[in-house]
Amino acid sequence: EKYNIVLMPMPRAMKFRPSSLLFPLPFAAVLLNFLQRNNLISAQSSKSCPATLTNIALLDDNTVLNYALVPSTAADGDAPNGILCGRVEHYGEGWIALAAAETADEMVGGEAIIGLPDESSVLKYNLGGFSVDLVTPMAESMQTLWDESIVQEDGKTIMTFAKWLVEENELEIAEGRNDFLFASGSSNTLAYHAARMGISVDLMAGEWDVLTTTTSTEAAMMDETTTLTTTESAMTTDVTTIAAATTDIATTTEAPMMNDPTTEATIATSEAASTEAATTTDAIATTLTTTTIASEGLDCTVDFCENELTSGYLQRYKVNIPEGQDPENCEGCSILMELIFEGEAWLSIGFSEDGNMIGSEAVIGVPGGTPQKYIMNGYALNLVELLPEEQQTLTDAGITVNEDGQTVMAFTKLMSEPGEIEIVYGENRFLWAHGNDATLAHHGNNRAAFSLDLAAAGAAVAEEEVTDPTDPSVEVEEDSVNVPDAIQDPSGGQDCTVNFCDNELTTGFLQKYRINVPDGQDPETCDGCTIDMEL
Length: 535
Fold this sequence. Notes:
By secondary structure, the chain is mostly beta strands.
């Protein structure tokens, strides 16, 4: 056969893939070889991603990066280049992003691959700032990804791509160690991220390390109104005075020190779904919260009252009533609250109508940041969502670790605010929680509900909390039945073909799993069933 071949000058930066040749395959191979030998196109064009991506890096508790490195070779000549082939699997539905960055704690100046499911779009973006309008797609000529796709199925969002390591006017991806940023949204619309993590990956060695973790407690990659900063907000004179007095408080209440958090065997993970299983077979369980009041007889509108939430965790509060106002029907009343924890950890105090976490609101503080208000939509971290900017009305808010190693969080909050759970000058239901360190993660068993009467210090000390059996932090002993650990039902009776189930293999070692049953198949005699498993 005869072919008329037209050869045209091609810019070096232009990418040319063999798969785009519209010729019979044998001739395409001959033509490609001819073009390469005569330096008309780069030998890089003959590279492609393997069928299986064998390397794995955990981007966060809900996300896995499967990847392969196709390295540069001597055949590349004076322009060596390789390929990063990636498949990001995120257990949740929302936009996802993987960014190359100079360092894992610096978003600005990074370059991201962002997948938007509703638009079936996977493009390269410049990260020019923290607001959405500064996250901009690169020019069309720089959109050189291939094999790119984003799909959502079975509650997962999956993004695939192939990218050259070295591209003109872009950050170079080394064949060795690189810093990357991962972020995911709570919806398919590019906006404030629900979670973000910085990791270091050695692409050649297949090794990775977590460097930074950011959840919705910090201003983030896509927040239009918040700026990410590691500068601690200055606390007011009143709050500083409170923090300085914590040594005396700890002495007079004789609160024993908590065990060193590093010695506690606790799993702290962001859950894959808000309905994950508890480690009990009871359908409904009750837990008695223990609360000791240390301020009987005090007027909490004049003096600070104290409430020991648990050993080594103290609550102090004072109700501020404007002059001429009736505390029973007060306009402008506020509560000044302080939490003092023996150790360094994130702290939280929640406000609830029924004593349950879901549907409650909370003030959460992480050392190095500023306490802010959140809505608790579920047990997973990405369901603990920051309230809108207009509802961030806390004053005198700060959190610090003092010289005695105590974490002290203080803030003033209006007791009645539109669209929020009201705090009354009477009996209220609160929730407390704390972490094992300064990284916001699952609280484990470090949480409880309690009832407190702000008008009568010491009157309300404890309540029975009806706990949701799907809360993975709840541990309840069965009455009169001693079931050996080896044969306990780890799922709490829930459907493990729909939700992730938990099984504590041993202290500090958790198994999570879900069975995927194709449509029309019987799980008992299934053809093509798979299991998602995480340890």
